[in-house]
Amino acid sequence: MTCIVNVKGLTKSYKNQSVLKGLSWEIEPGDVVGLLGKNGAGKSTLLKSLLNISDIDSGEISIFGEQYNQLSSKNKARIGYVPQENDEISWLSVNDLINFRKQFYSTWSDEKVTELISRWEIDATKKIAELSPGQVQRVLIILALAPMPDLLIFDEPAASLDPAGRRDFLKEILTLVSDENITVIFSTHITSDLERIANKVAILDRGKICYFNGLDVTKESVVQLIVHCKKEQDITIPYLLRGKVHSQGQYGVVSQLDQVWLAEMKEQAVEVTINPMGLEDIFLELTA
Amino acid sequence: MKTILLHGWLVKVFIVLLWGIAIAMRLTMHDDTRDNLLFTLIAFSNFLLYLMVAMRLPLLTHNKMAVLLPDYSQKLKKVLLLVFGVSLLPTLLVLPDVVTWLAFISISILAILIFVAMIYQPIYQIFIWLLILMPLPMAMLDISLNKGILFTTLAWLLPLIIWFAYVLLNKLVNYRGNHKHISKIIATMNVSMGNTLSIQDSIPFANRTKLAQWWGNSHFNYYRKLINDATNSSQKLSNRKLIEISCQSANSFGVNAYVIWSVGITLLCVLALVIDESYHHLFTPMVTLIPALIIGTGSITLFQIIQCKKSYLARLAILPRFKQHNSFSRAFLGYVFYNQAILYCFIAMLLAVTAKIFGHINVTVYLNSVLILLVYCLVTISMMLLTWRAAQNYCNPVVWLMIIGFIGTIVFTTHMATSGMVLLVYNGIFQWILIASLLLLSFSVFRQLTDK
After folding, report:
1. Residues of B in contact with A92 (CB under 8 A)
2. CA atoms of A52 and A35, how far apart (whole Å)
């Protein structure tokens, strides 16, 4: 299947501090990817780099099969983006801002704008500067959804929203994904949001995507293992994502449980404790 | 895009009004002065328009979404060409003199290039100072400027200027550089008139230019030293000093500003002393502009800063240090009066020195100028205090009032200097104005001391 987003060897640094170190990543059509990462891991930098908002040091990025910095107007119109920080012109009213954006798109949906504005109770005559951060976030989401994009990129979209607003936003994304088969990439800290809508999870750590897999597979397969063995015993845990050795044995997080290896352990009388993990635990373990 | 570039009704109305006056003059005036007046009027209104558009342009070129919106650069280019095209319509009034008309277009394009360059790269602000000082080297090298030859040359150069401007336009609509400086322009352009200077404090320190970082650091170092000295000694900082420290901003008109302006003026004076006296009149625009610039920034900055620090000062006012009745109000008044007194004394001294060396004003004009500045000072302090006490936010209209009052003051001072007016202190109208401004100030001080 042709990838919608294809990243190879992406590096980016700020003042000699490396943020992205040879990152590679592929997103397929219809994927709803939740991007997790600690503060300062480089989530925003990665998303901005994909869209050519932030310059990169090296690497290759393609979106819809075109080089990221030479996107055709047709493909630019297929992308919706909600930035983390609002940098819209603050003295424009919501109506002005909508009219400004509308002139760039032939696929702009006035119905969607009207529906969301009324559903989210936004006073479109108010200036951006007069809105609360949550309301501004909603306006930015409306601006991203109105051109009916094929690829939506959200940078912490729900950060400023109240629980009701967040639920509504997630519902909107779910509807879009199921009805229009669009691709969504969103960065977040809130794992429960991710679990609600994402079908894939990516974890960004130390400048690379250290984990990228289906959400269901992740929740079913990633487990924590404690292997009760002596230090001298040389045991290799298969599919190990992260692990350490301590006095009572070995401890690790695996991407899937190898039943053959488990049987071998049983034969050798090595006790193995298996603990299922939630998404938050997986994230914490992998980025520890 | 047009809405963003031409936002604000006040300037637009003013420009259209000037165009209207130009049309009326073209239709009604028939004497020799008409062409020059028309040229000046249209040039002034168009330059104002170009400056306004140039200042708003970073909001569009450096918008983060610019790279993502389809055909953004093309649309921006079209809008800029459209605005320029419309601005050329009033220039048709100078026809049938085709050479002047073509020269006018060349001058307009060159002015746009300078304005845009100044906005995007502050180093190009040097163009303005070079233009002001241009008559000096020309006079010294005995180059006489023939208007006819100049206009003919500019008219013939028009195709070249258009080609050059078009190349630069194509670069400009895709330009994303000089982030640090542009973020300051965007911050200023993104707020209303009442917050243009104070908003720049919200720009993170690391995102400022090296010069701005040095400027801020050297300014704050003085106050850090004050705090540390007070901490290390038994003598406490006075209430006024505490408020002064709380009211500092990266844009405050502080010690370093006084030092830099003093050095600049001294250099200008030294230059004047070494050249022939016959050239001194060529410095007049500059030595008039500098005090005006200092008063403008010094008074408006203080107003904006105390307005934006209102909530912070309110928290300060409830501290035990200010538990005595009116102690906070007194200290606050002390700070405002002290700050403005130093500013206006500096201006009076600067005027005296430049008047002595350049001889552009006599003693009467000097004394009159000081009196006019005194009235302006009393009125602006009153406005600061009244706005500070007001329940509603009147920041915007007050800054506009201060600017309009300031321009009025300069126009009146210039008129007075050229018309040989007698000492104003003996003028009945001026005496009433002075009394009225003193009463206004007394009222605002009284309100400051009595209101809760």
Report:
1. 3-4
2. 18
Contacts of A79 in chain B (CB under 8 A): 68
Structure tokens at B409: 């003051």
Tokens standing for residue B428: 């009945």
- Check residues B128 and B330 and name the one with the higher pLDDT: B330
User: Taking the complete model, does pTM exceed 0.80, yes or no?
Assistant: no
Report yes or no: A83 at the B interface, CB cutoff 8 Å: yes
CB neighbourhood size of A282 (10 A): 24
Give the whole-angstrom CA distance, residue B11 versus residue B45: 9
Q: Check residue B191 and give its pLDDT.
A: 67
| pLDDT > 70 in chain A, percent | 99
Domain range holding A84?
Answer: 5-215
pLDDT in tens, A63-118: 888 888 888 888 888 898 988 877 778 788 898 889 888 888 888 888 889 988 88
Residue A227 and residue A90 share a domain: no
Select from A215, A236, A257 the last residue of a domain: A215
Residue of B64, B70, B72 with shortest CB distance to A87: B64
Secondary structure class of A3 (helix, strand, coil): coil
Give the CATH number, domain containing residue A112: 3.40.50.300
Contact of B65 with chain A, judged by CB distance below 8 Å, is answered with yes
Residue A83: cis peptide before it, omega within 30 degrees of 0: no
Q: Do B64 and A96 touch (CB under 8 A)?
A: no
User: Is the ipTM value over 0.85, yes or no?
Assistant: no
- Residues A92 and A174 reside in one and the same domain: yes
The minimum CA-CA distance between B192 and chain A, rounded to whole Å, is 8
Q: Do A100 and B67 touch (CB under 8 A)?
A: no
The residue assigned the tokens 């079913």 is: A220
Residue of A nearest to B65 (CA): A53
Same domain, A210 and A242: no
Q: Find how far residue B349's CA is from the centre of its chain.
A: 21
Residues A201 and A229 in one domain: no
pLDDT for B321 = 83
Q: Determine the 3-state secondary structure of A205 from DSSP.
A: strand
Q: Looking at residue A122, what DSSP letter applies?
A: -
- Partner A contacted by B191 (CB < 8 A): yes
